[in-house]
Amino acid sequence: MPGVPSSRGCDSCRQQKKKCDLKQPVCTRCTRLHLKCVGSGQQRYKFKEQPLSPASQHDQYPAPGHMFPAGSPARSPSNESTMVAQAFVSALQVTDLRYNLSTYGTFLYDIPRRLGSNAVLDAAANVMGSAFPFLHARQYPPHVLVRYGRALRTLRTCLDDPVEAPTPNTLCAIYLIIICQGWLGKADGNCPSHGQAIAHLLRAAVLREWTSTFEADMVLTLCLPVILESIANPSLRFDPTFWDNAMAFTRRSSMARESSTGQSTIGLRRLAKIPDFLRFPDPHLHEITATYQRMRDQSYRMRHQLAQWSRVAPSSSMEYARYRAAYCILVALAVTLNSILGAFDPSNSALAGEAAFFCEEIATTAELASCHRPLGAGYASLCLVAAWAAVLDPRQLARIEGILLEYQTDFPEVQWFDRAVWLRTTFANLRQRVAERASVSDFEHSRLFAANEACVVL
């Protein structure tokens, strides 16, 4: 459709099909009729259809039966493994901190290449990829729940297989199922063996020659939540040999991958002793004090680093968010040890001041991280539990409780307040036991002193 020149007359003359004299600024006809003269002298083009000649038609369309090469169309997923991988990759590509799956561990990015080789990992990834699009609305269609049930059945079968059970893929699958369990609102009691299964497979993991980045990152990621869970779950016990093997394993893995994940394993053995510190504090008082001082000093350094970092990096950056999460978890562990030491030295004003400061830091960090809920601030709930259990000031207690209530709405089935009450009761019982023992000791001391005085009088 080539364009050909059209009339240069004004709009009024063209509309009435009158010849325009193109006078400026107003043509003669518009002046005489007192009309608004618009478009006078403007070049216009009219487009007309150009019919194709027989020759051009012959060139444009191929003869019947003529074959010519064409590009292959984009392939859609053709089998179940491909579709599972595509859904999982789509979930991993979300960069919004509120729904960024890397908060569960960077090793998740290596899962797609492992799909198709392990049935339980395929089933777990299928559940996560299917449930993720509905996470923001918390309304899951029936097919997601069906896939979750299928993953549980596949897991039970896998755990009965002595060959498949102790593999990295099985350990990873259990972790994914536990994550989905929280998303779907399934009560913790539905699968009570998952925590024990992770602990059991971790014991196997450090005894095997697992040297890839995927395996190293996975073990490092799972060690911390297992330690934290074992604080309130006495059945999750680890002997010292396990942590010796874990430290040796992480050292070998760090050298193999040249610290590519940026995670530090310093203090892993010391962190693993915190459950025993809480249950049997008396024989460990010296070690508790040393560990607390290290954590306190490290938290001060991290707080200073965060303050400097916030001036140059946006709070929405993944690196900043991870560092803030590590800081909050460290402070939560520190305030737990502070409460143990405070029970043995209730008149220590320095410990009391540090406890109040740590609780305030946890509350403030949780408030700042609230904009990244639910996934990007998932660590805050557990830290708030530690702060709620340790805080003594009523105003601080009310503030922390209010923040924890907000976080509770993210995953209502996780009973955070039950854990907080258990930990607070544990601290109270420890203070009472130490106080009663001190009273008995004072009574024995006074009776002995009175007996000595009587001997002197005689």
From TrEMBL:
Pfam name, any one: Zn_clus
Domain annotation Zn(2)-C6 fungal-type: ranges: 9-38
Record-linked PROSITE patterns: ZN2_CY6_FUNGAL_1, ZN2_CY6_FUNGAL_2
Chain spans, region Disordered: 49-79
Keywords in alphabetical order: DNA-binding, Nucleus, Transcription, Transcription regulation
GO MF terms held by the record: DNA binding; DNA-binding transcription factor activity, RNA polymerase II-specific; zinc ion binding
Record InterPro entries: Osmoadaptation_assoc, Zn2-C6_fun-type_DNA-bd_sf, Zn2Cys6_DnaBD
Name of this chain's protein: Zn(2)-C6 fungal-type domain-containing protein
Organism, scientific name: Penicillium alfredii
Lineage: Eukaryota, Fungi, Dikarya, Ascomycota, Pezizomycotina
